[in-house]
Amino acid sequence: MVKQTILITGGAGFIGSAFVRLLVRKNIRPIVLDKITYAGDLGRLDQVKGRFTFHKVDICDKKKVKGIFKKARPTLIVHFAAESHVDRSIIDAQAFLRTNIEGTQVLMDAARQVGIKKFLHISTDEVYGDTRRGSFIEDSPLRPSSPYAASKAAADLLIKSYMRTYGFPAIIIRPSNNYGPWQYPEKLIPLAILKASRREEIPLYADGKNMREWLYVEDCVEGILSVVKRGKNGQVYNLGSNEERQNIELVRMLLEIMGRPKTLIKFVKDRPGHDTRYYLDSSKVRRDCGWQPKITLKTGLKLTVRSYLENKSWLLNKHRRIAALYTDRSYNYGF
Ligand code: NAD
Ligand code: DAU
Predict the structure, then answer these.
(1) β-strands 118-122, 170-175: how paired?
(2) Measured in angstroms, how far is the CA atom of residue 227 from the centroid of ligand 2?
(3) Closest atom of ligand 1 relative to the 11 alpha carbon
(4) Residue 71 — φ and ψ, nearest 5°?
(5) What is the Cα–Cα distance from 11 to 79, expressed in whole angstroms?
(6) How far is the CA of 9 from the centre of ligand 1 (A)?
(7) Which residue from 84, 174, 187, 264 has its CB within 8 A of the most atoms of ligand 2, so it is best to mutate?
(8) Structural domain that includes position 57
(9) Sheet strands side by side (includes 177-179)
(10) Nearest atom, ligand 2, residue 275 CA
(11) Of 104, 124, 7, 122, the residue nearest 58 (C-alpha)
C-alpha cells in the first residue's frame, strides 16, 4: 500500500476530497486530477495543502491525461470524477455522458498504457434503479432511471467490457447516498441545513416519502480504502449503511437537531422519474473487506449540521451560485 503511486480523479469534490484527506492522514501523498467544475473546490483540501500533487485537467482530455499518466506512472487509480447531480442531468444530460462515460474510457485507456495494477471506479446504488422492498445485490440488474444514473451504469458496463476484453484490473464500488461536511448545497441535506438556518422553507419533492440509505462520508471513504486493501480485481462491491429513512423523516431529524419547526417543510412538484427507494445489501464488502460503518445517522447528522454552521459563509457562497447555474426555469428545483 505504501509503495503504491495513487492517483485520485475528482479529488476536489465532496467524496473525493474526503478520500484525499484520509490518505494524507495515513502519510500517503496522492496525485489529484480535477477539472474544478462548479462542484469542485480545492478549499476542501485546505487542511492538507502541500501534501498532494494537483493537476487541473479535464479527464476527457486524452492527450493531457496520457501525458500525466506517463510521467507519474500511477499503480492505483481511484476514480471519483463525475457530474453527480440527478436534477442537473434532467435539465441537460450532455456533460454527464461526456464526463461519466467518455472520461472513464479516456482514463482506462491511459491506465492500460502504464500497466495499472488496480482501477477503482466509484459508481452508485442508483444504477440498480429503485425497489419498493428488499435490497440490491451486486448481481442485480442495472435499471437506471435518470440520465445521471444511466451514465454511471454505462460506465460500469464499459469497465466490465474492459475487464473481459483486456483483462483490465478494475473494481466497481457502488455507495449509497453520502452526506457530511463540504457537500454542494444542491443536494438535499446541505440545502435543508442552509434553508433551516435561515428559517426558510425546505422544498421536499412530492410527499417526501421517497427513501434513501444515508452513509456518512468518512465511513464511505474508509469503506473505499478497505476495498483498496482487500478488494479483488474484477469484483463489484455495494457500500451502504443500512440507515434507511424517508426524506421527510430525515428532514424532521435535521430540524429537531437545529431546533427549528417542522412547519418549514414545503412540499413541491416532484422530480421527473424520481426513484422511490434505494437499498443495498452490503454484506459482501463487510465479509470480504472487513468494513462496517461507524457513524449512526443521528450522530452523522449532528456532526454535519455543526460543520455547516461553522462554515456558513462557504455554504452561502456555493448556494448563491446555484441559481445562476440553472437557466431552465420550467421546473422548480427547490432552491
Ligand atoms: P461532486 O460533484 O461533489 O464532485 C465531483 C468532482 O469531479 C468535482 O471536484 C469536479 O470538479 C470533478 N469533475 C467533474 N467533471 C470532471 C471532468 N470532466 N474532469 C475532471 N474532473 C471533473 O461529486 P461527489 O458527490 O463527491 O461524488 C463523487 C463520485 O461518487 C461520483 O462518481 C458520484 O457518481 C459517486 N457517488 C456519489 C454519491 C453521493 O451521495 N454524493 C453516492 C454514490 C456515488
Ligand atoms: O444514491 C446515490 C446518489 O445520491 C449519488 O449517486 C448522487 O451523485 C447523489 O447526488 C445522490 O442522489 P439523490 O438524487 O438521491 O440525492 P439528492 O440529495 O439530490 O436527493 C435526495 C432525496 O431528496 C431524493 O429523493 C430527492 C429529494 N430531494 C432533493 C432535493 C435536492 C428533495 O425532496 N428536495 C430537494 O430539494
Answers:
(1) parallel
(2) 25
(3) 9
(4) -75, -45
(5) 9
(6) 9
(7) 187
(8) 6-179+215-239
(9) 177-179, 211-216, 244-246
(10) 25
(11) 104
pLDDT-based confidence at residue 334 (cuts at 50, 70, 90): low
Measured from the CB, is residue 212 less than 6 Å from ligand 2?
yes
Residue 30 is assigned to a structural domain of this protein: yes
| pTM > 0.85: yes or no | yes
**Ligand 1 nearest-atom number relative to CA 58:** 19
Q: What is the pLDDT of residues 282-325, one digit of tens each?
A: 999 999 999 999 999 999 999 999 999 999 999 999 988 876 76
Q: Give tens-digit pLDDT for 23-81.
A: 999 999 999 999 999 999 999 999 999 999 999 999 999 999 999 999 999 999 999 99
Within-domain flag for 258: no
In the reported structure, the alpha carbon of residue 47 is separated from the centroid of ligand 2 by a whole-number distance in angstroms of 28
Placement of cell 457502488 in the chain: 174
- Cα separations in angstroms, 307 against 38, 62, 182, 280, 335: 21, 38, 8, 28, 21
Task: Give the rounded distance of the alpha carbon of 187 from its chain centre.
Answer: 11
**Residue 197 Cα to chain centre, angstroms:** 25
Angle between the 297-310 and 312-325 helix axes, to the nearest 10 degrees?
90
Q: Give alpha helix (H) positions in 26-140.
A: 62-72, 86-91, 94-96, 104-113
Q: Are 39 and 182 in contact (CB under 8 A)?
A: no
User: What is the per-residue DSSP string for 65-80?
Assistant: HHHHHHHH--SEEEE-
| Whether residue 138 lies in the annotated active site | no
129 Cβ neighbours under 8 A, 6+ residues apart = 142, 143, 144, 145, 149, 275
Cell numbers for 33: 486530477
| Residue 292 domain flag | no
CATH number at residue 82: 3.40.50.720
